[in-house]
Design a protein that fits this description.
Distance between the termini of chain B: 68 Å
CATH topology of chain B: Pectate Lyase C-like
Largest sheet of chain A: 4 strands, antiparallel
Oligomer: heterodimer
Strand content of chain A: 35-45%
Largest interface: A-B, 41 and 50 residues
Number of helices of chain B: 2
Shape of chain A: extended
Number of strands of chain B: 25
Strand order of the largest sheet of chain A: 2-1-3-9
Order of helices and strands of chain A: HEEEHEEEEEE
Helix content of chain A: 10-25%
Shape of chain B: globular
Largest sheet of chain B: 9 strands, parallel
CATH class of chain B: Mainly Beta
Structural class of chain A: mainly beta
């Protein structure tokens, strides 16, 4: 009986994601749509086994043990806008990607790029996250 | 002399470690044994380090997957050519079996446009792509760029969020040559707003679309195209609100369950699939089918296999699947039988 209770408790504990890790690019791409240094490329649960190239010189892993993985997933979005397309005489919306990544680390905070009046240009928004701990992946 | 040589070797070692260089073949799998653990990370490296490649670029997704890859992917800003293109493909256990339910297969799932493909020469081959988003504007695979493009989207299983519409796979309105073949696409139907498209070959009279041997179902529009040059052949568009719409300029052997197929003889057909049940879809043909099996036209100048990698045999089947009997042939020999030379048996 104790074993069953122990197993259930263990399963409950391991099924909850504690913490998140952010894969952050260290170098800017040459094209305006590309990820830029500091951009968040991927978000994974704390303790994720990263690949052989998900480390320096091109990437760093930023650990956020206090942030729930499920909450952190929002920071791996692309920056998009919706455009009107006419199909059979009817206007429908279609999504276009403006920049590969929407969120980036600036120092120890995460900021969002937002669309300005000019399509290519982006400006930073309010700081959202503080106290990030920056570690190498390997 | 020896010191200089050692210095040169040391310098090269440091240089290769400190500065990443273009790696033309990247690998993606779970568990940390490959270059990357997610497709988007691999694409990001390729964009930054290989923006003007002098060889073909490839990303191979392999191994057994226990969880979905949940980061949307955008491929852009790589100057590709017909010789130096980009290919993303699955292999081994990561390859699906023509359904979204194979255990261990790679599945890319996201709530916004899942794959945005804006390179001039590229191929996406053998992925399961699931759009879970809640906007009609999104696409599971959106392929679009300009000029002399040559985009190929083949052998994929593409699933939508049925209540929200969106696009399964689409070529942008100004794309160049766009080939969509051997794909299975379903669940892009928004009845409230009368939209959602399984396959869009493009719009507004630009670009060239070639839509061959796809099987699509349960969308508002099944297959739509209105582009400059368009060929629609050997497709099954079944149980959609409208199976075919737009201008199907060149067509043959396209099946519909309603009266919209551009090919009159293939309208209002009833087909036999393994399962059309929501949540357990399997759009492989079954032996009892009499409308799609052996009713297609030969397109072997362009491709010769089906979504499962099975060889297309003459006469071709319509749709993404070429029906293959699971029953092994039995050859019985009796009496004094002798073979000499190169003897082969075919099913």
């Amino acid at each position: 009986m104790r074993k069953i209770i122990f197993t259930i408790c263990f399963c409950l504990i391991t099924s909850i994601s504690f913490g998140a890790e952010f894969l952050v690019i260290q170098k800017s791409g040459s094209h305006y749509t590309h990820a830029k240094a500091g951009d968040i490329v991927a978000v994974r649960p704390d303790g994720h086994k990263w690949g052989k190239k998900e480390c320096l010189p091109l990437f760093k892993v930023v650990k956020k043990p206090e942030m729930k993985y499920e909450d952190a997933k929002v920071y791996e979005q692309s920056l998009t806008e919706e455009v009107d397309v006419e199909i059979e005489g009817k206007i429908e919306k279609q999504q276009e990607v403006v920049r590969d990544r929407k969120y980036y680390f600036d120092g120890e905070t995460i900021k969002a790029k937002v669309l300005s009046t000019e399509k290519i240009s982006v400006v930073s928004e309010k700081a959202i996250i503080e106290d990030a701990k920056v570690l190498d992946a390997k | 002399m020896r010191n200089r040589l050692l210095l040169a070797i040391w310098f090269l070692f440091i240089a290769t470690k400190a500065f990443a260089v273009c790696d033309y073949s990247l690998t993606v799998c779970e568990g940390g044994s490959c270059d990357f653990t997610g497709l988007n990370s691999a694409v990001t490296e390729m964009e930054i380090e290989c923006a003007s490649p002098s060889s073909p670029l490839s990303i191979e997704i392999s191994g057994t997957w226990t969880a979905d890859d949940t980061t949307a992917v955008v491929i852009s800003g790589i100057t590709t050519t017909s010789d130096n293109d980009v290919t993303i493909f699955t292999s081994g256990d990561a390859r699906h079996d023509g359904t979204e339910f194979k255990s261990g297969a790679y599945k890319l799932t996201a709530s916004s446009t899942v794959i945005g493909m804006s390179v001039e020469h590229g191929t996406i081959d053998g992925l399961i792509v699931h759009l879970t988003g809640s906007s009609n504007a999104m696409a599971a695979i959106g392929a679009g760029s300009r000029g002399q493009d040559f985009l190929v989207i083949k052998n994929n299983v593409v699933i939508g969020n049925n209540t929200r519409g969106g696009i399964g796979m689409g070529c942008a309105q100004d794309a160049g040559k766009c080939y969509l073949y051997n794909n299975i696409v379903y669940n892009f139907r928004n009845t409230s707003y009368s939209n959602g498209t399984c396959i869009s070959g493009g719009n507004q009279n630009y670009g060239d679309s070639y839509i061959y041997n796809n099987t699509v179902t349960d969308c508002w529009r099944g297959i739509y195209a209105n582009v400059l040059t368009e060929e629609t052949k050997n497709n099954i568009s079944y149980n959609n609100e409208i199976d075919y719409s737009g201008t199907q300029r060149v067509s043959s052997n396209n099946i519909s369950s309603d009266a919209t197929s551009p090919d009159v003889a293939y309208r209002n057909k009833t087909l036999s699939f393994v399962s059309l049940v929501s949540g357990s879809e399997d759009l492989h043909l079954v032996t009892s089918d009499t409308e799609a099996i052996d009713k297609g036209t030969d397109l072997s100048d362009i491709f010769t296999t089906d979504i499962d990698g099975d060889t297309r045999t003459d006469p071709w089947d319509i749709g993404a699947d070429e029906y293959v009997s699971s029953v092994s042939p039995i050859i019985k020999l009796k009496g004094d039988v002798r073979f000499k030379g190169d003897v082969r048996f075919f099913n």
